[in-house]
Structures are given as structure tokens and as C-alpha cells.
Design brief:
CATH superfamily of the largest domain in chain B: Thiamin diphosphate (ThDP)-binding fold, Pyr/PP domains
Distance between the termini of chain A: 63 Å
CATH class of the largest domain in chain B: Alpha Beta
CATH topology of the largest domain in chain B: Rossmann fold
CATH topology of chain A: Rossmann fold
Number of helices of chain A: 11
Number of strands of chain A: 7
Shape of chain B: globular
Bound molecules: thiamine diphosphate, magnesium ion
Structural class of chain A: alpha/beta
Low-confidence stretches of chain A: none
Helix content of chain A: 40-55%
Number of domains of chain A: 1
CATH superfamily of chain A: Thiamin diphosphate (ThDP)-binding fold, Pyr/PP domains
Number of domains of chain B: 2
Number of strands of chain B: 14
CATH class of chain A: Alpha Beta
Oligomer: heterodimer
């Protein structure tokens, strides 16, 4: 286990349980019909976002995916506003225009979830180009799934970042499925990280359920990026404990398989075990964090439920930024 | 009065890029062969020498990747990229980054993002470049909310509109007709901007309104000049920007003449031409004195042989015939 300051350990635990609590409550609210649309939850994958984000500053950028709540929370996004967004309320972080698949918080460098698989990967490369040309020492991190690694943007964006030696880290969350298609039927290689060789950059595979392992691997990759040594491709092997989206009948995998992962590879349970065994944090400290997180999520839900709906006329707002002459937003 | 110097359409665009790069270090140029080569039509010539490799970036053939990189760079607030898509026909391999990402990010994020990117691209038939290098696909951009679409016809407009486009905080698709690059016209040496959303009446007239874009503006003017000798007065309007659209100038002209011909070098359906016809019918029906005439290409791919391509592109003969039919 790497040397991690106590403050950081507390942050890691708080972040992981916050994501878990958030997602489990969102599942309930979705089932109650309070959250409309598609919802893809991050339960089981908490250690990946947390282990990576442990090294990021507010000024660093990330791009996220349809399964983006965990990234958003770990990057320090405003949870009240994102919860209201999930409800489609006027106080939502996107004023109710984005929903789960488009949550973004530019104030903390969260450049957005994405409804298009692989669509956000080049955006991280663009942010990294901006960082480089402005002489900053920030980094950008692109999160994406195993399925996305078969997309054109994966290849094109990583190659660009490699030839231009940009400060970006590519994090593939290999949860072993692309909806129903298992990883072994998507590609012949054992790890997505092997593809790094094709771009002449380092590639490393890590146990994505072990937050300490992710922490260590991400630390090195992010330092490399900050020092101007170029991109790294990380594959974090992980598993989603719930369906692809809420309501997924999951015919493509057995209950036993899911149970095995929950029992043996729950990132939060694994963290608690290690940390208590080593005496790095106390049971009381962990319980206090859980209490705090529960309260925070309940407050966010209350805020969302009590918030007003957007007004009908807002449909026409926020398409363009710079006003012009002539008709910009056409309506017959 | 001193003669204004004449330069080509390509040179006018180059001056706009040069000015913007000199003024704002956030402006970067990216695309295939835009560096040492100066762009395959010469539009980015000299920029690499002046601004260096960091700001003038040759890219691999990865249109989705480098346009997406431009979108991310713009969204981050750190750069104002001008990205070149070598031919508009290559849109198919990169469309997602334009119509789902660049166009929608601001709206999806509730108005919190600005995407100051210009995507320059090349359209148009006339070079025997056949079906995958000759299309006019502006309607595909006009169709999707969130994109501004500029399609100039003269060197003067090209320079002023490109400057405005780069200074605009929204994604702008800047379309350059390949048969116009060598066309010369008067262009002031100093920088100036032309606001987006302002049509230009290229020739005043009172008998019939012709709305045309890019190369078709020149053909319409040729016909107008010919008909003038017979005492037929044709008004030629170049919208210059398709989004935003200067409805007012177009509608005022229709109200004056009562007759409308739209000339659009593009496929005929769900097009810019049908759009302007719908506008006329919707907002000036009571002033129309004749059916609206559309002069467009047929619904076929662009053929290769000069003999066939000539037939495909709307000709002065077809424009003249359409005008005469409603006089
Ligand atoms: C370009 C594109 N194709 C297909 C989809 C539909 N879709 C949404 S999520 C998904 C699976 C993505 O798998 P992966 O990248 O592994 O991410 P995961 O859902 O496992 O986190 C698919 C096919 C989409 N949104 N975008
Ligand atoms: Mg997956």
C-alpha cells in the first residue's frame, strides 16, 4: 500500500461512500419515477474515479461518460445542482437541459458526461492542448469504457496526444461489458492497456477495485503528464454491480457472477478492511463519514424535490452565446 | 478616390487568419497539411513561418479526433481553434464531433459553456472532383441547432466574415467554395469585420428577387446583367450567413418584387432552397405574385465527367429560364 496522508485517506473514503450512497439513492428515486430518462450507475466502480481524482486539482480537466456521476462527484462537482439536474429541475446544474448523460461542472474542470460513447475522449486532448499552449502545469483526464476503446475517437485522440506529447491521461474503465457484449468478445487482447504500444506511450493495467492500486498507477501517470512527458493509457479492471442502466434485465450475465464480485471485490469493503487492519483510520472515523455523506445526499434530494420546474420559454434559451443580427433560433 | 487593391478569395481568407493570429495568442490553426504546405488550396500559407509549429498544427488524417480536440480546447476556455476540414465531403467521418458535440454542448450544459471554434471547410462542384469531393452540404449544418453557418461569395465578404467568425464565441462552420478561391475582388488591407446575420444585396432590382449563395451569386449576377439589357430588373441577394439568417432583407425584397427564385448549388430536397421557399410562403404569401422557383442540382451524386458535371451544377441558362417563367 502506498504512503497516503491521513487527510487523503479520509477524502478517499468519503468520496467512495458518497458515490455509493448517491447512486443507490438515485436508483430508488428512479424506481419511484422521480428521475426521468436513462440512468447509468457507477456502483462497484467507485475506486477508479476516486483513485485517479485523488491527484487532480480543481484547475485540471476531466471528460466523462454516460456513466458519469462518480467522476462528477470525485472531481468535486456541486451535488445539489447535479441532483436537481437528474430531476430535470430549473436549479439543475444544466438548468434541466442535460440530465444524467450530460452533467457537467465547468467550475471544477468537469467538461461533461457524454451521450455518445467515446465522444469525450478528444475533448480531453483539446483541453490538454490548451494547457500546453498556455504554459500551464495542469492535466486532463479522459474517462471511458471498454466499449469506447473500440471507437474511432479512442484511436484518433490517443494518437494525437501521443505525437503532440500532451498532458493527458486516458483511463479506460474496463467493467467487462459493453451493455451485453462481454469484453472477451470485443477484442482479442487481455488488456486494453496493450493498445498503448500502438501509440508509443506507456500502458498499464490495474485492479480497479483496489483504490490503492489505482491511486499509485494514476499518481505516476499524472506526474508524467504534469512534467511534460506525455500521455499514459491506464486500464482499470472493474465491474458494475448494477445493470447497464436502471431497468436492465441483465440476461447476459449470471446472478452468481454478480454476487461473486459484490462479495469479493467491493472497493469500499476492501478499503475498510485494509485501513482498519492497519489501524490507519478508526471505525468511528469511518462511521462519522458515512453519517455526513448520508446527510449531504438527503439534503441534495430535498433540494431537488423542492425545486421548481424550468419555465416553458426556457426551451429557446442557451443555444448560442454571441448574439447576432438575423434569426438565430428559428421557429415557424 | 484611390483604387482599392484586388486580391483573391484565398488571399483574403489568409489575411483574416493572419490578423486573428497576430491579435490573439489563443487562436490556433489545425488541420491536414495546413503547416508547411499552406493548406491544399493555399489558405494557410505563411502562417507556420510566422506563428510556429505550436500554433499552426499539421494533423494526422483523424478528422473526428482533431475536430474533437478543437471542441475540447474551445470548451476548456484556453484556446480559440480554427480547424480545417479539407473537403466538406469528409464530414461523414467527423460529423458527431460537430453536430452532437460542438453544436449541443452549450445547450446541454444549460448555457454554461462557450465553444469558440471555427471549422473551415471546402465545398462545391466544378473541378471534376466527382461525387466524394464536390458536394455542397451546407444544409446538413443549417439543419442542426447550435451551429452558425457562413458561406461567402466574394473576397471582401470572406475576409470580414472570417474575422467575425473567429471572434464569435459559438461554433461556426465557415464554408469556402473551391471554385471561388482564385476569384479576385477589392479587399481593404486593414482588418474589418462583417457582422453575421446581415445579407448583402449584391444588385438592386424591382421585378424579381433572386436569393443565391457562394458561386451561385456570381451566376445570378451574370444573368441579372444580361436581363438588365432587356429592361428586366433583377434583385440579387446573398444571405452570406445561412445561420443566422437575415430574414428581413429577404422578406422585404420579396414584398417589393412579389417574385422569388432561389438558386442553390446543392441537392434539391430538405435544402437551403426549400427553406427559403418555405420562408416566403410562410411569411410573405400574400405578396407573392407567382410561384416560387427553385434552381438546384438534381438529386443525384455529383458526376465526374466535365460534360455531366456541367449539367449537374445550376447554370446561368437554368437561372434565366426560371426567372423568365415567372416574369
Ligand atoms: C456511439 C454510440 N454507440 C452506441 C451507444 C449506445 N450505448 C450507450 S452505453 C453503451 C455501452 C458502452 O460500453 P462501455 O464503453 O464499456 O461503457 P459502460 O457502459 O460499460 O460503462 C452503448 C453501446 C452510444 N450511446 N453511442
Ligand atoms: Mg464497459
Amino acid at each position: 500500500m502506498p504512503e497516503i496522508p491521513k487527510e487523503k485517506l479520509l477524502w478517499i473514503y468519503e468520496t467512495m461512500v458518497k458515490i455509493r450512497e448517491h447512486e443507490e439513492r438515485v436508483a430508488e428515486l428512479f424506481a419511484q419515477g422521480k428521475i426521468p430518462g436513462f440512468v447509468h450507475l457507477y456502483v462497484g466502480e467507485e475506486a477508479v474515479a476516486t483513485g485517479v481524482m485523488a491527484h487532480l486539482r480543481k484547475e485540471d480537466f476531466i471528460t466523462s461518460t454516460h456513466r458519469g456521476h462518480g467522476h462528477f462527484i470525485a472531481k468535486g462537482g456541486n451535488i445539489k445542482a447535479s441532483m436537481a439536474e437528474l430531476f430535470g429541475k430549473a436549479t439543475g446544474i444544466c438548468k434541466g437541459k442535460g440530465g444524467s448523460m450530460h452533467i457537467a461542472d465547468l467550475d471544477v474542470g468537469e467538461l461533461g458526461a457524454n451521450g455518445i460513447v467515446g465522444g469525450g475522449i478528444p475533448h480531453a486532448v483539446g483541453a490538454a492542448l490548451g494547457i500546453k499552449l498556455n504554459g500551464l502545469d495542469n492535466v486532463a483526464v479522459a474517462f471511458f469504457g471498454d466499449g469506447a476503446s473500440n471507437q474511432q475517437n479512442f484511436h484518433e485522440a490517443i494518437n494525437l496526444a501521443a505525437i503532440w506529447k500532451l498532458p493527458v491521461v486516458f483511463v479506460c474503465e474496463n467493467n467487462l461489458y459493453q451493455i451485453s457484449l462481454s469484453y472477451s468478445k470485443q477484442q482479442t487482447i487481455k488488456s486494453v492497456a496493450e493498445r498503448a504500444a500502438a501509440y508509443g506511450i506507456p500502458g498499464v493495467s490495474v485492479d480497479g477495485q483496489d483504490v490503492f492500486a489505482v491511486y499509485e498507477v494514476a499518481k505516476e501517470a499524472i506526474e508524467r503528464a504534469r512534467n511534460g512527458e506525455g500521455p499514459t493509457l491506464i486500464e482499470a479492471k472493474t465491474y458494475r454491480f448494477r445493470g447497464h442502466f436502471e431497468g436492465d434485465p441483465q440476461v447476459y450475465r449470471s446472478k452468481e457472477e454478480v454476487e461473486w464480485w459484490k462479495e469479493n471485490k467491493d472497493p469500499i469493503v476492501l478499503f475498510e478492511k485494509t485501513i482498519l487492519e492497519k489501524g490507519l483510520l478508526t471505525k468511528e472515523e469511518l462511521d462519522a463519514i458515512r453519517e455526513k455523506v448520508k446527510k449531504e445526499i438527503e439534503e441534495a434530494i430535498k433540494f431537488a424535490e423542492e425545486s421548481p420546474w424550468p419555465k416553458p420559454e426556457e426551451v429557446l434559451e442557451d443555444v448560442f452565446s454571441t448574439p447576432t443580427k438575423g434569426v438565430l433560433v428559428w421557429q415557424w | 478616390m484611390a483604387m482599392v487593391r484586388e486580391i483573391t478569395f484565398a488571399e483574403a481568407l489568409n489575411e483574416a487568419l493572419d490578423y486573428e493570429m497576430s491579435k490573439d495568442p489563443k487562436v490556433v490553426v489545425m488541420g491536414e497539411d495546413v503547416g508547411q504546405y499552406g493548406g491544399i488550396f493555399g489558405v494557410t500559407k505563411g502562417l507556420l513561418e510566422k506563428y510556429g509549429e505550436e500554433r499552426v498544427r499539421d494533423t494526422p488524417i483523424a478528422e473526428s479526433g482533431f475536430i474533437g480536440t478543437g471542441v475540447g480546447a474551445a470548451a476548456s476556455g484556453l484556446l480559440r481553434p480554427v480547424v480545417e476540414l479539407m473537403f466538406i465531403d469528409f464530414l461523414g467521418v467527423a460529423y458527431d464531433q460537430i453536430y452532437n458535440q460542438a453544436a449541443k454542448i452549450r445547450y446541454m450544459f444549460g448555457g454554461k459553456a462557450k465553444i469558440p471554434i471555427v471549422i473551415r471547410t471546402v465545398s462545391g462542384a466544378g473541378a471534376s472532383a466527382a461525387a466524394q469531393h464536390s458536394q455542397s452540404l451546407h444544409a446538413l449544418f443549417v439543419h442542426v441547432p447550435g451551429l452558425k453557418v457562413v458561406y461567402p461569395s466574394t473576397p471582401y465578404d470572406a475576409k470580414g466574415l472570417l474575422i467575425s467568425s473567429i471572434e464569435d464565441d459559438d461554433p461556426v462552420i465557415f464554408i469556402e467554395h473551391k471554385m471561388l478561391y482564385g476569384v479576385k475582388g477589392p479587399v481593404p488591407g486593414e482588418p474589418y469585420s462583417i457582422p453575421l446575420g446581415e445579407a448583402d444585396v449584391k444588385k438592386e432590382g424591382k421585378d424579381v428577387t433572386v436569393v443565391a449563395t457562394a458561386l451561385m451569386v456570381h451566376r445570378a449576377l451574370e444573368v441579372a446583367k444580361k436581363l438588365e439589357e432587356e429592361g428586366i430588373s433583377v434583385e440579387v441577394i446573398d444571405p452570406r450567413t445561412l445561420v443566422p439568417l437575415d430574414e428581413e432583407t429577404i422578406l422585404n425584397s420579396i414584398k417589393k418584387t412579389g417574385k422569388l427564385v432561389v438558386v442553390d448549388e446543392a441537392y434539391p430536397r430538405c435544402s437551403f432552397a426549400t427553406d427559403i421557399a418555405a420562408l416566403a410562403v410562410n411569411k410573405a404569401f400574400d405578396r407573392l405574385k407567382a410561384p416560387v422557383k427553385l434552381v438546384t442540382a438534381p438529386a443525384t451524386p455529383v458526376p465526374f465527367s466535365p460534360a455531366l458535371e456541367k449539367e449537374w451544377i445550376p447554370s446561368t441558362e437554368k437561372i434565366e429560364k426560371a426567372i423568365r417563367e415567372i416574369l
